[in-house]
Specification:
468 residues; alpha+beta; Nucleotidyltransferase, domain 5; six-stranded mixed β-sheet; six-stranded antiparallel β-sheet; 16 helices; 14 strands; 39% helix; IS1182_transpos
Length: 468
């Protein structure tokens, strides 16, 4: 006989334990066993007033943000709505069945004024990295570095040429992203007035060479125009990973710029050594990281660069390239394919470039000149640290270099996971600070999911955390 459920809801008292309804193998249980936020209240206490209306618990907001990034909920308004109805999310956030959910608007101010000032999001990220190291998931011997373009949250039609003056609104009328840009612009100009470098290659809003286009919505976003792609505004998500199992040991959001990528690599490698006492023996990267300045920086620190050398000396017209000339280290000369010598006056251009030049008489009677140059004489440039580039080039044929190339795919997989699974193919927050927050939270979510997969194979007993 088919039964029928009574439609009435007349029961007055309920015996309900939220801990019993969350499955023992649910991801929130595994992550909760890995996450340590016991420090939050003490560290953030100076950023909260002792008077006035009671504030929202910062640990609750941290947990709610992590729910959003771990489960790819791309809106704080949506995060609040999901936690309202999802019992597993409520359990992870330590909320009772009748507890009210904070309004989505509380996140904006807390993130901008408290979490950023205290660097709380980086503290959460580094806590997860420290747990990965303690669990033996970080080898510390080989790292990989890479950056991925992420679209900015702007309308690309709202832009103006970078070489034209812009009438920005007053500070009180401007958006937070615009105010942040103007502050960085003023700071960079002040550095120039004091004789500094003006942040020409930094991450702020000011650059010596004006950008081609500036977004009126988010001025720190970079205009990216590449062959075969529709131009767009973007930022870079930079990851430094350990090659053992792909744990992200550092992450940073920056402006999309090759020079910035090189500077950020140095920052992240130094920070990982300072925070975790880890210095890799080798670092893998693509050609973007093959600039001689970074190669020398790595070699000076006994880090072997498994990176293709950035070299634009090859000529596309079929004439002799620099590689066709032989450098004599002892005599400090180049010897051309025809046997003539190219000498240098010793003058240094741009602080690192030395020119070598053949004699007019040698070039005028050389039968190979049509394959060499159309100028009167042939010139060759050499970097002061060209010996470093030569040493790195020699590594390309080693088995260790090929292994690093294979392992470097793990950082590319992290970016694929970021965009396809966690749905960060477009930033939601604006301004460089917002981008940094999103990159850190996403990297934290990826590490937590990775830890849960590797450390929590079997469902733990109810109420017991998985061991890290």
């Amino acid at each position: 006989m088919m039964g029928r459920r009574e439609a009435g809801q007349g029961q007055f008292f309920y015996s309900f334990d939220l801990n019993e309804v969350v499955p023992v193998d649910h991801l929130v249980r595994q992550i909760d066993g890995l996450l340590d936020l016991s420090w939050v209240h003490k560290e953030l206490a100076p950023y909260y007033s002792h008077t006035g209306r009671p504030s929202i618990d910062p640990m609750l907001m941290m947990r709610m943000l992590l729910v959003g990034y771990v489960f790819a909920i791309r809106s704080e308004r949506r995060i609040c709505a999901e936690i309202q109805v999802n019992l597993a999310y409520r359990w992870f956030c330590k909320l009772g069945i009748e507890d009210k959910i904070p309004d989505h608007s509380v996140f904006c101010r807390a993130r901008r004024e408290r979490f950023r000032e205290s660097d709380a999001l980086r503290r959460v990220f580094e806590g997860v990295v420290a747990m990965s190291i303690a669990a033996g998931l970080v080898g510390g011997e080989a790292f990989s570095i890479d950056a991925s373009l992420i679209k900015a949250d702007v309308d690309k039609k709202k832009r103006t040429p970078g070489d034209q003056p812009i009438a920005w609104p007053k500070a009180e009328e401007a958006s937070h992203a615009v105010r942040e840009y103007l502050v960085a612009l003023d700071a960079a100009r002040g550095d120039e007035d004091r004789g500094g470098d003006g942040g020409g290659s930094g991450e702020g809003g000011y650059r010596r060479k004006p950008p081609k286009e500036i977004s009126l919505t988010d001025p720190q976003a970079t205009w990216v125009a590449r062959p075969g792609l529709d131009p767009f505004f973007a930022y870079d998500a930079n990851y430094l990973i350990d090659n053992k199992v792909g744990i992200i040991v550092d992450a940073m959001g920056t402006r999309a710029n090759r020079t910035v990528e090189i500077a950020v690599t140095q920052t992240m490698v130094d920070r990982v050594e300072r925070r975790f006492d880890l210095r890799p023996r080798r670092l893998a990267g693509d050609t973007v990281y093959g600039a001689v300045r970074l190669l020398k920086w790595l070699v000076d620190r006994n880090i072997t660069p498994h990176v293709p050398v950035w070299d634009k000396s090859t000529r596309p017209d079929g004439t002799f390239s620099r590689a066709d000339f032989v450098f004599d280290q002892e005599r400090n000369i180049y010897v051309c394919p025809g046997g003539a010598e190219l000498t240098s006056t010793g003058n240094i251009d741009q602080g690192h470039i030395v020119y070598y030049r053949a004699s007019k008489s040698d070039c005028s009677r050389c039968s190979l000149k049509p394959k060499c140059t159309t100028a009167i004489v042939r010139k060759i440039t050499r970097d002061l640290n060209e010996d470093v580039r030569d040493r790195v080039r020699a590594l390309a044929n080693t088995e260790a270099f090929q292994q690093s190339r294979r392992e470097r795919k793990k950082v590319e997989m992290r970016f694929a996971h970021m965009k396809r699974i966690l749905r960060l193919d477009r930033f939601r927050l604006r301004g460089l600070s917002g981008v940094r927050d999103e990159v850190l939270l996403t990297a934290t979510a990826q590490n937590l999911r990775r830890l849960a997969k590797l450390l929590c194979h079997a469902p733990p007993p109810l109420g017991t955390a998985c061991l890290a």
